[in-house]
Amino acid sequence: MEAENSGHVLLFPLPIQSPINSMLQLAELFCLAGIQVTFLNTHHNQQLLCRHTNVESRFRQYPKFQFLTISDGLPEEHPRSSLLFGELISSLQAVAEPFLRQILPAMTCVIPDGLFYYAVDIGNEVGVSVIPFDTISPCCLWVYLCFPKLIEAGDIPFKGNDLDVLIENVPGMQGLLRRRDFPFYRLTNCATDLYCQLALKEIQSIPRSHGLILNTFEDLDGPSLSLIRSNCPQTYVVGPLHLQLKNRLADKRMPSSNSLWEEDHSSIEWLDTQPIESVIYVSFGSLAALTKEEILEIWHGLVNSGVRFLWVMRSNLLRGEEFNHQLVKELVEGCKERVYIVSWAPQEKVLAHPAIGGFLTHSGWNSTMESIVHGKPMICWAVYVDQRVTSRFVGEVWEIGVDMKDICDRYIVEKVVKDLMVTNKDKFKKSVDKLSILAKQSVEEGGSSYNSFEYLVDYIKKLGRRGKVTNPNCMR
Which among 10, 147, 184, 345 could disulfide-bond with 110, CB atoms 3.0 to 4.6 Å apart, if both were Cys? Predict the structure, then answer.
């Protein structure tokens, strides 16, 4: 009875590394607040989690928590790569829709990833509160919310090939956002582009939701949040989530790993031998794939900069080819003393390490938040979706790094690495340290993110006491 009164939440993440990580952090926060939690994962990703982390034993300490798994509808040998992401989303939807209709009547609230627009309608059908968790950057979400206006104004799809044309019909971003910063920057047909259609369905579902959860903090994204709230007043801003969780754990330890990849902790041992702020950390996340030419240009730019670097080279980093270990071995020869390569790293621990002075990143939202929290300036080599908008904000709005998107030239890489790590090191460090302090203040008791999470918990517990909802309306 106690569990029922505290509310029962179903968390349903997008089946990729970053959203799973964020949702598990949110799940543990709910557990600490006494809320009953069911975490719905795919069989494939749950197997990876259990293989590479202690996630099952860790959550066993919470009697009100359980994992549930479903098939993603794909054969086990499917690569589930970024190039085939649309197949994964479509296949999972076919399995998830009937499953959600079956399980949601037993819940008081469902928190799906924002991309799972169909969960909103199913929740409303069965009278269960739906609060999507949008794991992309708020600045990109606001661009999404402006899609209908942009289509109506004729700004999208783009006409011509000039990617430096400014997009003027995104309120709050006039004079800032270029076509190359757009989530789908080579968009030619909205009606046939899968990702544009998914984004449109996602934003159309927001007014039918009971709220929205975002992983950021007011002092970072205040202007974007104000605009988002014009569409969804009940927006819970609870980030940085990993820091919120750390602060609420009894021993204030760094949250445990939620990695789908095996982490190589020798990277920390190597960093222990390096001078303070002398190393740039290089990682393009869990999905991005680079061509051999791109890898070589970035590599030579880093080597020519003279700066030490730690590079995460996943086994599936090389686009369209088998990963060539011999190539890596040959590259490392001659510069072993200032280069270290791993297939996957414990990223939070790496970014927290005093030897790290900067981060060459794909600008994924979790990576960006972690870099800000640990006070590490960034070089952004964004690939797709929210990364492209985020990287523009890193360089031009927050001024905590350099936006290098669409450039893969060894001479430019060398120049920006020197700029970040040597020439303008103090300027970038000062800017990011200010945001780091504000991030930490936001999750302390009485801070904006701390309070927002308390409001969310209170709402869910009230739902548990009074039962199902009947009048969903996020839009005012």
Answer: 10
Provide the token pair at 471.
């009048």
Contacts of range 415-418, beta carbons closer than 8 Å, 24 or more positions apart = 416/379, 417/280, 417/301, 417/302, 417/305, 417/307, 417/358, 417/360, 417/379, 418/305, 418/306, 418/307
Place of tokens 């259609």: 197
pLDDT at 129: 96
Q: Which residues contact 369 (CB under 8 A, 6 or more apart)?
A: 215, 216, 239, 240, 241, 242, 439
Contacts 24+ apart (CB under 8 A), 268-271: 268/346, 268/349, 268/350, 268/353, 270/310, 270/340, 271/310, 271/350, 271/353, 271/355, 271/356
334 or 95, which is more confident?
A: 95
CB–CB of 288/82 below 8 Å? yes
SS3 235: strand
How distant, in Å, are the alpha carbons of 77, 131, 143, 235 from that of 475?
A: 43, 13, 18, 11
CA 28 to chain centre: 17
Residue by residue, DSSP assigns 319-367 as TTS---HHHHHHHHTT-GGGEEEESS--HHHHHHSTTEEEEEE---HHH
Q: What is the pLDDT of residues 299-352, one digit of tens each?
A: 999 999 999 999 999 988 887 666 666 667 767 776 777 899 999 999 999 999
**Strand ranges, E, within 13-147:** 36-42, 65-70, 109-112, 129-130, 133-134
Q: Of 324, 302, 317, 300, which Cα lies nearest the Cα of 383? A: 317
Task: For the chain, give the mean pLDDT.
Answer: 92
CA dist., res. 341 & res. 28, Å (int) = 32
In this predicted model, what pLDDT tens digit does every residue of 428-452 receive, in sequence order?
Answer: 999 999 999 999 999 999 999 999 9
- The C-alpha angle with vertex 419 and arms to 415 and 425, in degrees rounded to 5, equals 160
Nearest Cα to Cα of residue 283 among 358, 389, 334, 338:
358
